[in-house]
Amino acid sequence: MRVSIRTVILAAGASVISAARPYAAPNPMTVVVVNGPYAGTYNARADEVVCLHAKAQKSYAASFKDFEASSPRGFAEGGLNVSNPDAPGPKTGELFAAFGTKDKRSAVYDITDAPITMKITAKGADFVGTGKTKEGIQIRVTASCVDVMTM
């Protein structure tokens, strides 16, 4: 069963809200939209990027959501989700980027089965995923997870 980035965002958000956590190290994330009306480089606020390794669900994700998004062209959500991260071999997963206000999205880019490079580090993992939507919009998501919630 696939776990979507939105599900991971909600689960991680609920975990963060429900548990008092000590200071979390920043998890930098960058989303690059190569072409189309939202072309550009978008940096998520590193202290608001949530990284989650859900072993039972076979998922490792990094996600960002701006709960106060107020601009139709603003970067509202982004992330990646690696499917079956603990299995040997090449990794694939979902890439996601959304733009718009908290009530209305102007654009949503969602790519499934994208190749993702995953490098395990001493404190977490580094990711690079690149893919193209059905409409031909190419996006690249990079994330470095240092503070990782494990379930």
Strands side by side in the biggest sheet: 2-1-9-8-7-6-5-4-3-10
Tally of DSSP β-strands: 10
Could you say which overall geometry the principal axes of the C-alpha atoms support? Answer: globular
Q: What is the average of the pLDDT values? A: 88
N- to C-terminal distance: 17 Å
Structural class: mainly beta
**Uncertain residue ranges:** 14-20
- Element pattern in H and E: HEEEEEEEEEE
Contiguous helical run count: 1
As a percent range, the share of helical residues equals under 10%
Q: DSSP strand (E) fraction?
A: over 45%
Main features:
151 residues, 9% helix, ten-stranded mixed sheet, 1 helix, single chain, mainly beta
Describe this structure as you would to a colleague:
Helix content is 9%, strand content 50%. With 151 residues, the protein is mainly beta. It has one domain. Strand 8 and strand 9 (138-145) form a beta hairpin. The longest helix has 14 residues, at 5-18. It starts with a helix and ends with a strand.
Brief synopsis:
With 151 residues, this protein is mainly beta.
Topology:
Layout: H1 5-18, E1 29-33, E2 40-44, E3 50-54, E4 59-65, E5 75-83, E6 91-100, E7 105-120, E8 125-132, E9 138-145, E10 148-150
Parallel strand pairs: 3-10
Antiparallel strand pairs: 1-2, 1-9, 3-4, 4-5, 5-6, 6-7, 7-8, 8-9
